[in-house]
Amino acid sequence: MNKQKEEFRNNEAVLDIQDKPPFKHWLVLSIQHLFTMFGATVLVPILIGINPSIALFSSGVGTLIYILCTKAKIPAYLGSSFAFIATMQMLMKHYGYPAVGQGAISAGLVYVIVALIISQFGSDWVDKILPPVVVGPIIIVIGLSLATTAANDAMLNNSKYDLKYFAVAIFTLVITIIFNMFLKGFSSMIPVLLGIVSGYILAALVGIVDFTSVMQAKWLSLPAFDVMGVNYSFKWYPAAIITMAPIAFVTMTEHMGHVMVLNKLTKRNFFKNPGLHRTLLGDGLSSVFAGFVGGPPTTSYGENIGVLAMTKVHSVWVLGGAALFAIVFSFVGKISALIQSIPSPVIGGISFLLFGMIASNGLRILVDNKVNFELKRNLIITSVVLVVGIGGTYLKLGNFQLTSIALATLFGIVLNLILPSKAASEN
């Protein structure tokens, strides 16, 4: 432990997956991840009309379930999934939360079933259908497809451009970069947290932080859990199952994309160890749990992967600590309200960097694997994936929607399988 503390002070080593940081550092590193995921995790329930504290609780428990299922070998945080928003809004309007909960459970069970199949037949197919020429552009798309979200958070106040918002966002971005580049020792590992705090202070000074909810919130507040079968008399909602279960196949592609990014960051192959079946099982059981307690389905978060990329602190203990904080804070009304009061331009400024980090790792995959763009095949695959994914292309059939990332992944996989290794003119 003394050696580890010395490494912390000199910033000579990165915390690996199983490394446990000193307690005081552990708390701060975990809170950094909590702040990073908080905005998106509570935004989803707000948009569909359910209790944000329940979403915070279910994300914390879901992350611990994921860590358990993956044998504590993968540093990832699971938060509320955006992919189901449109469908959940429709279900809430017509049937209420029981239908949403049933849909979340059915989507999670799809993950569980696929995980069981993979555990029996293996995942060698992943390397064949997802080579570097497909994986690299998909990861770039995952990062850049979020660029509009970051920009809107940074500039828009009630859908209108706000110079004050933009100034706060740019300040948050710049100060975070400065912290990341010039701080030494332990401070260099928490640039995101320091950036959020600095941005929040400036936002408060210029008057764009609303403290009303913080003042009104109680110190201790029990989330109104909508436990299936307890608060409601049980009833089947076929519409929920039919509309939400298929979306699980879409979010699986994003799930695998995040695992690929983590593979690159940690220099491991999580598809092999602990295995894709375990990552899918953890994600699926997390959504099943969320559906039972009244939360939205969960998924791994790119924002937290961005923090891992920036800080190079890959300790699963840190992510587990963030999960515990999320659970505790879901019962502490004042703290939950304080974090929820972080204005969107602060989150937007941080997101410029975090989402860019994800995209940059996709570029690194192409460079490190020396993908030859002299070959028309590679040029075509990359071009189609990037434009379809970043352009926001999507396929909608009724209430079922194939997102741009999922559609780009599908195009990449199909083109990789059908295109010859060389064009006729290259032979």
TrEMBL record:
Primary location class: membrane
Pfam families referenced in this protein's UniProt entry, alphabetically: Xan_ur_permease (PF00860)
One cellular component (GO) term of this entry: plasma membrane
Membrane-protein topology: Multi-pass membrane protein
Segments passing through the bilayer: 26-48, 104-122, 129-151, 163-183, 190-216, 236-262, 316-339, 345-367, 379-395, 401-419
Keywords: Membrane, Transmembrane, Transmembrane helix, Transport
Protein localization: Membrane
InterPro entries linked to this entry: NCS2, Xan_ur_permease
GO-annotated molecular function: xanthine transmembrane transporter activity
Family, as annotated: Belongs to the nucleobase:cation symporter-2 (NCS2) (TC 2.A.40) family.
Name this polypeptide is given: NCS2 family nucleobase:cation symporter
